[in-house]
Design goal:
This protein has 138 residues and is mainly α. Helices cover 70% and strands 3% of the residues. It has a two-stranded antiparallel sheet.
C-alpha cells in the first residue's frame, strides 16, 4: 500500500506541473505571475519558449495534455484498488513511454534548444520515480 501512496503523491505533483504548463500555454495566467513561486515561473527566455516547439508535442498532442491524462489515471489507480488491478499494465507502459520521452526531451532541452527548464527536469525525475514505483508495486 505504501508505494501506491507515493505513486499518488508523485502523480499529483506531475499533474500540477502539467496543469500549470497548460494554463500558461493557453494564456489563462501569465507564466511569470507574481503569485507563482520563482522556481515554477515559466520565464519568457526559458520554459515559455519550448511550449510551442515540435518537441512539446507527441503526435500533435501537447505533452502537458498527455501528462494530465497519465497523472489523473495514475492518481485514480493509486487510490482505488480495483482500478489499480485493471490499469496497472497500461500505466506501466505509459510510464515507460514517459521516461523515454523524458530522455529525448532532456536531450532536446540541453543540446538542441539550449534552454533550461526546471519544471521540465522536475517532471522527468517524477516520471522516473513513478516508473520505478510501478515496477516494484504489485
Amino acid at each position: 500500500m505504501a508505494p501506491r501512496i507515493f505513486l499518488g503523491l508523485f502523480s499529483v505533483a506531475g499533474l500540477l506541473i502539467s496543469g500549470y504548463f497548460a494554463v500558461v500555454y493557453h494564456k489563462l495566467i501569465p507564466g511569470v505571475d507574481r503569485f507563482v513561486p520563482k522556481f515554477c515561473r515559466v520565464e519568457p527566455g526559458a520554459c515559455a519558449t519550448i511550449l510551442g516547439t515540435r518537441q512539446a508535442r507527441l503526435f500533435g498532442v501537447p505533452n502537458f495534455d498527455l501528462g494530465i491524462l497519465f497523472y489523473v489515471g495514475l492518481a485514480v489507480s493509486a487510490i482505488l484498488p480495483d482500478v489499480w488491478k485493471e490499469l496497472r499494465t497500461m500505466l506501466l507502459f505509459g510510464s515507460i513511454v514517459a521516461v523515454l520521452m523524458g530522455l529525448y526531451l532532456s536531450y532536446s532541452l540541453l543540446f538542441q534548444l539550449k534552454v533550461h527548464c526546471r519544471l521540465c527536469y522536475t517532471s522527468h525525475v517524477i516520471n522516473i520515480l513513478i516508473f520505478l514505483l510501478l515496477v516494484v508495486t504489485p
